[in-house]
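Lecture notes, unit on protein representations.

Consider one protein chain, 425 amino acids long.
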Amino acid sequence: MEFRDLARTVITLLTAVGLAVGGAVTASGDSGAVPDADTWSTSWTQSQQRSSGLSPETFQNRSVRVVTRLTQGGSALRVRLQNQFGTAPLVVNATTAGLSAGGAAVRPESLRDVTFGGSASVSVPAGGQVWSDPVQLSTSSMDDLAVSFYLANPTRMMLHDLAGRTNYFSAVGGGNTTADTSGGAFPDTHGWTYLVSAVDVLGPDRAGTVVAYGSSVVDGVGADNCGAGCPSPAVFQRWTDTLAQRVVDELPADRQFAVVNEGIAGTTAAPECGGGGLDGVSRLDRDVLALHDVRAVIYYYGTNDLANNCDAETILAAYRDTFARLRAAGIKVYVTPITPRPGYTAEQNARRAVVNEFVRAGGNCSGTCDGVFDFDAVLRDPENPNSIYPPYDTGDGVHANIAGQTAIARSVPLGRLWRGVLAER
């Protein structure tokens, strides 16, 4: 039995009896069992943050609606609620899920109650997470799923501060409006993602999930920037969004895989280089290895390490550690060299050159990864390789605008990525 298959079997068995898996606590009675021919695959994610990730207000007798875009569909789904950096249990009194009808509205025929161990309410432990029971709702690739939850008691939640889309609150003291389908009970908007950190879908044995893992270039900073005088789009156009759409549009039905985003802006590859405990080494178990049916990772880290004046060897030690842990779990690793940043000093650019030479060597990170996707080559200015190509620059010299995000997504070789996620299956 392959390591990946053995791990999946162990997780399914543990979930069936309601035990903790990788720090997650599932509600008692959530079997998580799937038919032999089917597999749970993670179809959407958004990491929780520690430093800026606490809600600016206390919620009481109020509902929240979070809209998630499923990169692949299935015959059923389940939702992960997370309280990773909370200091006390977080009680959710009711949860629903349904297909978005645009804005805060939900298609009425699709609305489903979401339970946890058969109960409408659930307590998410401090530092933990809870997966829901399976929800019988068929979804398609690129469907928008609205997850709504009600908080009766005074609650402050963790969040991700770059949702990339509009989410919704009920009015203050508005009560349990999770069953509202018109959207009228959610008049307030916000650009954060609260509490919901992953959605799985159930489907036939497929190619699994590809995780984009890294800092702001992954998180999507700049993906709402379309140039001077252009209004920001309602939905950010991150390179991962465009890549997921390419999978749907360009690959046949039997070669589909999910693409999910586990980026957190401002984080580093190495714990020694900063990142507030959300570096790529420290959060790997929670934000990648705890997801389901992960077959490959596209890794982008290092730019903030350099900006924080870390040396090349410290960065490379974090790379080697992370890549080894992923490959030991049977996950393919594709790495991008660090992209340009005009604020780097000459010494920092020299360190970037050392890291990038390691990544490019042999086309496989000197034998430590499975391939290289060269975002540096895509974004750098041919006339000034230490800067971003001006048509791709948001203006901050660091992040790609929508045109740059699209160029990154178009540069990823789908056939090669598909062969990688299917290898040794």
